[in-house]
Amino acid sequence: MKVLLVGDGSREHAIAEALARSVKEPKIYALMHLINPGIAKVCEQSYGGYRRGSPIDPIQVANYAEELNVDFVFIGPEEPLFHGVADEVERRGIGCIGAHRAVAEVEMSKAYMRRLMWKYEIPGRLRFKSFKNVEDAIAYISEYAESLAIKPARQAGGKGVKVIADVQVYLSKEKREVKAKHAERVVKEHMRGYVDIEDRVLLEEKVEGPEYTLQCFSDGETILPMPLVQDNKHAYEDDLGPETGGMGSICGKGLILPFITMEEYSRSVEIVKKMVEAVQKETGELYRGVIAGQMMLTDKWGPTIIEMYSRFGQPEGENILPLLETDMVEICEAIIERKLSKVKLEFREKATVVKCIAPLGYPDRRDLARGHPIVVDEEAIARRGGKLFWSSVDTVDGMLVTGGSRACEIYAEADSIEEASEIAERCIPYVKLLDGWRLFHRSDIGTPRLLEKRRVLAELVREIYQYREKKGILGRTIDWIPGRGKIEL
Amino acid sequence: MSGILGLYAFDELWSVSRFVYYGLMGLQHRGQEYSSITTWMDGNLYTKTSKGLVEDGFRESSISKLKGYVGCGCVSTGKELEQPITASKNGLTLILYVSGGLIDADFHGLARLLLDEIGKSDIEQAGLSILERFKGGYSFVCITSDGRMLAARDSLGIKPLCVGGLGFDLAVLASESSALDVIGADLSRDIEPGEVFVIEKFDVRRGITNSGRRAYCSFEYVYYARPDSIINCIHVYDVRRRIGHILSEMDPVEADVVIGVPETAIPFAMAYSRTAGIPVEMGFYRTGRSMRTAIRPTELERLMGVQLKLNPIKAAIRGRKVVLIDDSVVRGTTLRNTVYLLRRKGAKEVHVRIGSPAIKARCPYGTAVPPEDELIGRALTSEEIAEVIGADSFSYLPVDRLVEAIGLRKDSLCLGCFTGVYPDLGGG
After folding, report:
1. Are A276 and A221 in contact (CB under 8 A)?
2. Under 8 Å CB-to-CB from B231, ≥6 apart: which residues?
3. Do B204 and A174 lie within an 8 Å CB cutoff?
4. Residue B162 pLDDT > 50, yes or no?
5. In CATH terms, is domain A211-440 a member of 3.30.470.20?
């Protein structure tokens, strides 16, 4: 059996290992933009192989798959999906794990996703406005002082999101200026080159609460949800600093996190199911692959959609793929044959922590974070109970150099999140740059203090959304405008 | 005495001077004589220092002239505009704001040495060596002309300092969490005793030098801090409530009404009232704006402050036995004036209760306590004080009960102004 994996991040490293654990002993091949040594190793050990290429090029991927005569293709990241790689692979008669271009729109266009939620009245939807030109967005921002999330209308590698609480009127002037300037930057920088959607900027009502990610397999009929994972987006400890693609993530023992209830989990699953149904109805296509809700427990709705992923999260996928007991190849075949309802998903009962390690410069100056030689003592890490996932690194003439994003991740599992975090911490010193440039990570992820902080926040928003539910105003925005009267937005 | 603030925006789009301005207003209670703000942008430092309250010292035009996405500042007591403290060497300038006091050294020396060390090693190592070298109770925040921010808290944690953030955009360091509340930032945690906190363009780092010993200033809880602040993970308001509760149990009196001296003693009075079952009333009304009389520099100003601040409400006290609660007594002169005012408006009895122990000694850590021969609590017994101020009875909160109200171990507090024993000096 042969499988072609598309992508080169830590997520794909974890997917490759999950595939390699299959009793069917597939030969694993990979198409990568940067040569990830972790994936390369899995490919070699499974008697497969890899090639440097462009994962977002449908023809290249499909040709490689045909050339190898693989049984199926697994697409890891989102951009190949947005470029129609899954469509092309299936057009050639090869099975594919990864959403078609049309249904991947739930992730690609944040404006489309929100419109879909309102059209199908899916719980957990937020008020939003999308703009096709920056002038209209700025005019809106200047008129209304509101707490907003300003986002590129398209998924732009997780970059370009700014969240501004505009509550204190005495600081509103500065905040409006920053909001307007950021909206301009979104259009000029983050959306530059993306011509596949018309919307440019999205303004969304700001909500607050603990975030979590719910990842699921979908074959178009059945949704199989996985354990919840929480990512930590701030670059630095104590939840300080700019937003990143994620500096590390935690997964509790079992399905839920210590601060999310089973009922909230079930509601979150319902929301993701409704999203899949809605996008299938809208496009007439099946959703096959991985889908994830990047969610937040908010006082407005309880479980609320912040964004949708058409793939595993990174690093969230790395928290649960190592725990997967069900044969990954069996799952993939069931997705292709639309027999996912017959699969029983099983995970080992462990808490896991993933800590990302990034060179200084990440996230805002990747040019500075790029090109530093890196070495890892994987044996030492293994002896301390951890495990390495390679992420943004390239292999150049047999040397490993950083790629500009988070270079690698330490994964650890234990009976509690706190213990797993301690194990990961003990492994961190074995990752080093050879040129004296500095690496950073967040030692606070998975510590009792941070978990307690999340629990307190969850408790606070839970009290409010439960009160709203009792009052029958869950998800509603009711206001009174003097002189105009009561309105509902 | 001062309050300090540092603010760093990770996104250069921000202009932070107005955030510093409002943050300093949230620390105004720590110093009302002058305030100062410095901002940094593209290698340039912009400083403005003004007398009086923050609100009076900075007009709209001066706020907008302070450019940049990095800023810090202070509010301070003292007639002279002593802050910021600056040092320059080899083209690098350091702007430092401090709260507290050093033993056998001054902050100019500290700033010069810090700059030297920064030139020699990692900035957090430089900060750590300063903390190890300079004894005292202090916290400081500084900006370098190459745009780095460094904040530190003395190795015993005598002076408070905390850190928080506003979304993905700002990191905020402040003497008290009240400053964070005012600008809408969330408190992350206290900076630990002996901790150095560094913010650079692409990194936030910390270092720590600490023997595990702590000596948090207990006077913060009694008087200095705002009641809405959280210091060393303890809500100041909770401590003041417990103090009121203890006072009511200690020396019970038959009285008709409880009155707190505005504004610090109000929570004491409310808790006293609840425990004793005696109604609390608003006993005074203020003329002019809110002022912290105890930290005014001259006797005349303090008396003027008290007389303006405390006009007794006759209807609340006439013909009644009054429990009057105040936070502290330094010289006793303003308290005597207050008791006299109550008597003149017809109070039948006045029983004075103080929410802190007798102040008997100086503070080597920057709190302006008058010379020891001016301290009424050092010179006179409670009975004598009652006579002098014209009260029917007078009592303090004993030191051990203050420790109990704060809820920490005695050896992790500085009680120097009450006991004359200082954490890094021994007996005095």
Report:
1. no
2. B160, B162, B176, B177, B190, B216, B220, B221, B225
3. no
4. yes
5. yes
Q: Residue count of chain B, please give it.
A: 428
ipTM: 0.93
| B247-287 confidence digits (pLDDT tens) | 999 989 999 999 999 889 999 999 999 999 999 999 999 88
In the prediction, which pLDDT does B309 show?
77
Q: Where are the domains of chain A?
A: 2-98, 127-205, 211-440
Give the containing element (helix H, strand E) for A366: helix A366-369
In this model, does residue B291 exceed pLDDT 80?
Answer: no
Q: Chain A window 220-239: which residues touch B at a Cβ cutoff of 8 Å?
A: 233-239
Cβ–Cβ gap A173/B18 under 8 Å: yes
| Partners of residue B204 in chain A, C-beta under 8 Å | 235-237, 240-241
Q: Tell whether A255 is within 8 A of chain B (Cβ).
A: no
Asked if A52 and A25 touch (Cβ cutoff 8 Å), the reply is no
Q: Where are the beta strands (DSSP E) in A128-263?
A: 128-131, 148-152, 162-164, 201-205, 211-218, 223-225, 230-231, 234-236, 240-243, 248-251
| Partner-chain contact A364 B10, CB within 8 Å | yes
Strands A72-75 and A2-6: parallel
Q: Select the residue of B13, B18, B189 nearest A171 (Cβ to Cβ).
A: B18
- Buried b / exposed e over A450-487, threshold 16 CB at 10 Å, is bbebbeebbeebbeebeebeeeeeebeeeeeeeeeeee
| pTM to 2 decimal places | 0.94
Q: Report the residue of chain A nearest B184, measured CA to CA.
A: A168
Angle of CA points A28, A34, A36, to nearest 5°: 50
Residues of A with CB below 8 A from B206's CB? 237
- Could A360 and B169 be called an inter-chain contact, meaning their C-beta atoms sit closer than 8 Å? no
Task: Provide the β-strand partners of residue A52.
Answer: A32
Q: Which of B21, B78, B77 is CA-nearest to residue B224?
A: B77
Given this model, what pLDDT does residue B426 score? 57
- A181: closest chain B residue by CA: B13
Chain B nearest-CA residue for A176 = B14
Per domain, the residue ranges of chain B are: 2-214, 235-414+421-427
Does domain B235-414+421-427 correspond to CATH entry 2.60.34.10?
no
Nearest chain B residue to A236 by CA: give it.
Answer: B204
Spatial separation of the C-alpha atoms in residues A94 and A62, rounded to whole Å: 9
Q: Do B165 and A240 touch (CB under 8 A)?
A: yes
Rounded distance between C-alpha atoms, residue A443 and residue A396, angstroms: 30
Residue A341 has what DSSP assignment? G
H or E element, residue A294: strand A289-298
Measured at the alpha carbon of residue A49, what is the angle toward residues A43 and A54, in degrees to the nearest 5? 105
d(CA B265, CA A428): 51
CATH superfamily ID and name for B2-214:
Aminohydrolase, N-terminal nucleophile (Ntn) domain (3.60.20.10)
pLDDT mean across residues, chain A = 96
**SS3 of A28-94:** EEEEECCCCHHHHHHHHHCCCEEEECCCCCHHHHHHHHHHHCCCEEEECCHHHHHCCHHHHHHHCCC
Residue B423: cis peptide before it, omega within 30 degrees of 0: no
The reply to whether residue B168 touches residue A162, judged by beta carbons under 8 angstroms, is: yes
Query: Which stretches of chain B sit within 8 Å of chain A by CB?
Result: 10-11, 13-15, 18-19, 22, 163, 165-169, 171, 182-184, 186, 188-189, 202-204, 206
**Residues B268, B234: Cα–Cα separation, whole Å:** 16
Q: Rounded CA gap, B113 and A399, in Å?
A: 43
Using CA atoms, how far apart are residues B402 and B358, in angstroms rounded to an integer? 11
Contacts of B18 in chain A (CB under 8 A): 170-171, 173-174
CATH number assigned to the domain covering A2-98: 3.40.50.20
Angstroms from B48 CA to nearest CA on chain A: 20
Which residues of A fall within a CB distance of 8 Å from B182? 168
